């Protein structure tokens, strides 16, 4: 999440990530980290609440160990940085 924020792209390439190293030598701005953490927690809680409403047992475990949070976070990045680059594959447990 933070790397995408710094790169301003949902799917930074390895080369793009390498160019971010100088930005990471001084500490990354706390407001960036706080913002990304808040977004992750918001998505996590929304997914847990959906499962609770469906009366699924152990919703926290299901979200924490499942793939729905990853997909939701990647969807958020795709919406935030619509670059037309390759998208992510939504993978579900088989």
Summarize the structure.
This protein is mostly helical and 94 residues long. The protein has helices at 2-7, 14-19, 21-24, 30-53, 59-65, 68-80. The chain is built from 6 helices and no strands.
Describe the 3D structure.
- It is a single chain.
- This protein is mainly alpha-helical and 94 residues long.
- It has one domain (2-80).
- 64% of the residues lie in helices and 0% in strands.
- The protein contains six helices and no strands.
- The protein is elongated, with a radius of gyration of 15 Å.
- Mean pLDDT comes to 85
Number of DSSP helices? 6
Structural class: mainly alpha
Distance N to C terminus: 26 Å
What is the number of E strands?
0
In percent, how much strand structure appears in the residues?
under 5%
Secondary-structure element string: HHHHHH
Per the principal axes of the C-alpha atoms, what is the gross shape? elongated
List keywords for this structure.
single chain, 94 residues, mainly alpha
Write the SSE topology:
Blueprint: H1 2-7, H2 14-19, H3 21-24, H4 30-53, H5 59-65, H6 68-80
Helix pairs in contact: 4-5, 4-6
